[in-house]
Design a protein that fits this description.
With 106 residues, the protein is mostly beta strands. The protein is built from no helices and ten strands. The protein has one domain. The strands form three sheets. It has a four-stranded antiparallel beta sheet with strand order 2-1-5-6, with no helix packed on it. Strands 3-10-7-4 form a four-stranded antiparallel beta sheet, with no helix packed on it.
Length: 106
């Protein structure tokens, strides 16, 4: 089995593997910049799983920013029949695509 880690960023948890690309909530930085994710919740080396309580001390995930972009628009439409009420709201989430370079168990 391949090594992986579970990281938390932007209030969400992501399972990441080395050389994988992941779309996460917006992180500061330009394309090509290196970043370090230090809220690592679990790390597996392919044989043994280590779980933090809630985070692993000293464990980090090193990644590089590929690009900053916005997700496709999500449309929310509300309507009450026979009342003349309707409301249409659109939302586009800002995202960052990162490539995982290394998983350091600490």
């Amino acid at each position: 089995m391949e090594a992986y880690a579970v990281v938390e960023t932007g209030g969400k948890q992501y399972l990441v593997k080395q050389n994988s690309e992941v779309d996460v909530e917006t992180l500061a930085g330009e394309a090509g910049a290196a970043i370090t994710l230090d809220r690592v919740l679990a790390v597996s080396d392919g044989q043994k799983l280590t779980v933090g309580a809630p985070v692993l001390a000293g464990a980090t995930v090193t990644a590089a920013i590929v690009k900053q972009f916005r997700a496709p628009k999500v449309v929310s439409f509300k309507k009450q029949r026979r009342k003349g009420y309707h409301k249409k709201i659109g939302h586009r989430q800002s995202l960052t695509r990162i490539t995982v370079k290394a998983i350091n168990a600490g």
